Amino acid sequence: PSLEQIVPAPDGRKLYLKIDYYKETVDESTNTHAGIGYDGSVLWTMDVATGKYLDSLEVPVLERVEEHWGKRVQTEHVYSFVGASKGGKFFFSAPDSGGYALLVLESGSPEQRTGFIRVDDDELAFNAFHLSEDGILSALLASAYEAKVVWWRLEAGFGCGRRRLWR
Q1: How far is Cα of residue 138 from the mean position of the Cα atoms in its chain?
Q2: Lowest CB count within 10 Å: 37, 92, 132, 150, which one?
Q3: Whole-angstrom Cα distance, residue 44 to residue 6?
Q4: What's the DSSP call for residue 13?
Q5: Alpha carbons 62 and 47: distance in angstroms, whole number
Q6: What is the Cα Rg of the chain in Å?
Q7: Could you tell me if 51 and 33 are in contact, meaning their C-beta atoms sit under 8 angstroms apart?
């Protein structure tokens, strides 16, 4: 297991811990140790007062088809934990061509929402994201020539465009 992120709950005395799990891989042809491979991710909910784990939520991977050396290959990408908003909604992101793929999971619900936010490739020299308790994602994006602060209102839906706050 590898701890990826710890985020405090915006509406209670809880912590959310995203843990990525890895397992040993074995080369079947030689039956020897071949390395370590990704095995899954779980978002754990911990009660701050007692230190006990209250709940867990399995985080799926982002599956996409990519071109490698002229062949189309199915790939899996691990989502990063961005944060939690009020009401038990959990936001995850993964870099994707032209921006970031988003995933929203809700506590106690099997439903998953996905979306995409556009970020120009030249704005990825540096980036730092923050999610407010109301579901507003803000980012500091830097290119070789400028820095921008932008935001997206994720709670209202993924169709909302980005707003530039500062340039």
Answers
A1: 14
A2: 37
A3: 10
A4: S
A5: 29
A6: 18
A7: no
